Amino acid sequence: MTDFSKLLNPEQCAAATAGEGPILCLAAAGTGKTRTLVHRVAYLIENGVPADRIILLTFTNRAAREMLERAQQLSGDAVASIWSGTFHSICAKLLRRYGIALGHPPGFKILDEDDQKQIIGRIIKETVKDPKDFVKKEIVAKMISEALNEQSDISFVAARWMTKVAGVDVDAIVKIADEYKKRKVELKALDFDDLLIEGLKLLETQKEVREILQEHFLYVLVDEYQDTNLLQARFTDILAAKHRNIMAVGDDFQCIYTWRGAQIENILQFPQRWSGCKIIKLERNYRSVPEVLKLANSVMDGASSSFDKRLKPIRTSNGNKVPRLYHAYDGRSQAAEILQIITRSKEAGVKYRDMAVLYRSHFQSIEIQISLGRAGVPFCVTSGVGVFEQVHVKDTLSYLRLLKDPTDELSFLRLVQLLPGVGTKSASSLWAKLGKKFNSSIAESRAKLSELLPQKARAQWNYLSKCFSVAHDYLKENDVGAILEDFSQLFYEEHLLREYPQAEAEDRLQDIMELSGQIAIAPGGLDGFLSDVALMTNLDDRRNDPSRDMVTLSTVHQSKGMEWPVVMIPWCCEGLFPSSKAIEELRIDEERRLFYVALTRAKDRLSLFVPQTRRNHDGGMFPVQMTSFLKDVPDGLLEHRQAVFVPEPIRPMWRR
User: Fold this and answer.
1) What is the pTM of this model?
2) Would you call 186 a catalytic residue per the annotation?
3) Theoretical Cys-Cys bridge with 398: which of 5, 131, 375, 414, CB 3.0 to 4.6 Å?
4) 309-367: pLDDT as tens digits
5) Catalytic pick among 36, 254, 334, 396
């Protein structure tokens, strides 16, 4: 028998070797959550629990594989028969075995995201009069998904979306959703959302199946419990109801995905739902130096609703590792300081891959990406797409390039294909008929293009033509902010709302406004900026090489579960982190948790940045304040520094 007390710290050992009954294991950041779950599995098997009567529910297949591989190293091949996987994969397995009771044959097909979109796309073409003017199949798929997960009527969800997205026809959406449901039955198929919905229905409605499964599973283990939604929590509650041996492992401090359905109440109310619940706290942090943990603890002192726990350091400092708070003049000063930190760290022997810049929203990284790109510092973006590879940025730059160069064929082709009814072939035909030149400053050229366009494209073209008609006057004044403001408001915003959900469309519009601010202060103006972009985008392919030593740029959401020796967090300012939208919607607690996640990614050195001013899209300035999350931090937990680089003041440019 394994002596778990020699392998684990006392709290980990208590969780891994706990007896029967419900257990809530509160595993704070960097405290060995996975290690504890792995040893829990090994302990149960060594104590005679048949492996196939243990079920381990995770949120990624990678996590499930990692845990089983590590458990196998401890307990041998016996672990192979454990029921382990994501909620959706476990539901699929149950439905293949028992789903006939709900009318699902054992050989049902599982539709992936592409399958779903293709089917919905075909239905749209078959049922909608003008498919190209209708909302995109991706958005229809999201509506159907929301309705399923909320157990709401599709008409209710579609009506809610109608206030966000242009062109939503509620009756048409209902018809498409009904037809999609019929097609799935005809194909004997379930999509990703159906797996969880039908898996839960199996437990709730089929008494015989429910009793078989409740009897069979002696122990139910759930990883990342703070990320469960109502359906997932209900599923595990039912499964564990007979033997009551459920272990929920998670951290309420790291519940940051409520926007995609996670319910923090699931973990906060777990002890109330399970009488006699034993709470075990994992607080010994093995990741970060003590100074980082002190700051993280202080930030979470302001949380309004959470379990009482503190990160306790295992590591020692080995020198002054107090997190640094850099007060910068503006975004350029901040980007320059980040570049300096990266350069100095590299010279000190730190690899690029051991450094990360974590930000609240993608647009906050644009100035940093430009700075690193100009300096030749290799970096990768966790989304896999750098700022100048983004579709909406490419569209915007095509508009600007065509303003500057009437012979830019690629920009013309890209831009006109944003219009309804214009595809690749028709765009090329238009270019040829225009004599391979489009001078947008000339009214006759704009009128000629309008005549050549298909009828359905002309309404949208009128808005874009209006943008072109005034853009050249702004161009003479170097007022790129005004150019892009018109482009966004008169034309591109509606396009984005047809292509993406409102929140994503708004984020992309924010990127464009941020981009215009960078152009306004770029050396050489718009021409210099476009030249720089051309040079930087030629290096994009090199960023896709995972073997390269590169700095990581990531949103905080995408960084969860990761760690780096050196972490930098820009724009620690009110309205940016927390975001202005979160402030308006009173979601400050979740933003605080997100800030905590960002802090606890740092192993050795943490640098925070608070610019004093932020630029408008026209190059003008307005003041910003330090985030409320840092205002109450006690003296001594932060080392205040002034960013060295102070840019020369730039004359604000105002709209006429």
Assistant:
1) 0.86
2) no
3) 414
4) 999 999 998 888 899 999 999 998 999 999 999 999 999 999 999 999 999 988 899 88
5) 254
